[in-house]
Every structure is written in structure tokens, then in C-alpha cells.
Amino acid sequence: MAVKNLKFAILLLLWAALSAALFFCAAKPGKREKTNAGDFALQETPSEIKIASWNLGNYSSASRIIDGKFAPKYPKTESEKSRIAQIVCQINPDILFVQEMGAENFGEFLDRLKNAGIYYPYCEMLQNADNARCLAVVSKLPFEKTFKFDNLQFAYMGKPAKSPRGLLGVKVGGFYLFTAHLKSRRRAKNTDKHCGIFRKAE
């Protein structure tokens, strides 16, 4: 019995000595490694990027139905604009592509988002013949490169055609991101119901 107690006491002392040694080794102050700005910037790079795309439905003065009546070149209502800014803030995307943005309304859109609490310092817009329905992108992250294709041509039912709104793209964080806005389904030819052939070619 005494031998067993002696062995237990020795093991207990060894464990205590080892624990103390490990503690002092861990707590011992040593030389701090130098941290440079590049390492800090790398740590600050987001591991995830949230991307959203939204057709804003004529964020411009355009023909629309107001109170059941047709109104030509009628601006988007303040309630709609405020709701859009609210939803964008709730989603809080790092990069937001938008379609049907009025060329003259883009600055106001950015200001509205900023006043609502979300700021996008980087932005691009692709203008085309239809300045009331442009493609645009806003971002919290800088663009490494931008791509604007405003002259996309293709064959349509045996004749040359052109995409009315083009293609807008950016390179961010090594990723290539693009947005397109296909031709509407309205004003289709009798031989191309809902512009299905045109939209597929586009």
C-alpha cells in the first residue's frame, strides 16, 4: 500500500512540475514579431463578398401607370425610391448591379443610399441609346478592371441586330462579374412572340 501511495505522490509531483514549466514557458515575454501594413491589409480583406443584382423598374422619368392612369415621362415616386434604399441597406451587398437606372438619376440614387446609411465609393455606368434604362454597378470594393460592351451585334432572323442595353462587367478580388438587361418582351414581331428569339440571340 505504501508503494502505491509513493508512486502516486511521485506522479503528482511530476505532473505539477511539468504544468509549472509549461506555464512559465508560455508566459515568458519574448521578442515580438514585426507586423507590416501588408499583413494587416491581408487580414482585413473580406473572406466573403455579397453580390446582388436588381432591376429597379425604371429608376427615371418614364411612362407608367399612376392611380390607374397612363402618365408619360413620370418620375419614380419618392415612396418607391425610399423603399429601394431601405431594402438595399437591409441586404447590405458589397457589390450591387442595377438595371433600368436613369443616367440623370444615378447621382441621386447614390446620395439616397448614403443618406440611408450605406456608402458605395466605387461606381460605373454603361450608357446607351436608352438613357432611361442604363446598366450600373456600385461597390464597396475597388474595381481592378471594368468592361463596357455597348456595341454587341448578332444575327436576328437573318438580319443584323444590336443589343439595346449592352453588357457591363467588373473585376473585383480576382472575380469577373457581369450584368445584362435583355430586351423587354413587349413590342415583339408576330413571328417572334415575346421576343423569345431575340432574347435568346442576345
Q: Nearest-angstrom radius of gyration? A: 30 Å
Estimate the global geometry from the Cα principal axes.
globular
Beta strand count: 11
Secondary structure: helix percent: 25-40%
Structural key phrases:
alpha+beta, single chain, 5 helices, 4-stranded mixed beta sheet, 3-stranded antiparallel beta sheet, 202 residues
Can you put this structure into words, describing what you see?
The protein is 32% helix and 31% strand. By secondary structure, it is an alpha+beta fold. A hairpin with a 2-residue loop joins strand 10 and strand 11 (175-180). Helix 3 crosses helix 4. Residues 9-43 have low confidence and may be disordered.
How would you summarize what this structure contains?
It is built from five helices and eleven strands; from the N terminus they run H-H-E-E-E-H-E-H-E-E-E-E-E-E-E-H.
Task: Reconstruct the topology from this structure.
Blueprint: H1 2-27, H2 37-44, E1 51-59, E2 62-66, E3 69-74, H3 78-91, E4 95-101, H4 106-116, E5 122-126, E6 134-139, E7 145-149, E8 153-156, E9 159-162, E10 167-172, E11 175-180, H5 196-201
Parallel strand pairs: 1-4
Antiparallel strand pairs: 2-3, 4-6, 5-6, 7-10, 8-9, 10-11
Helix pairs in contact: 3-4
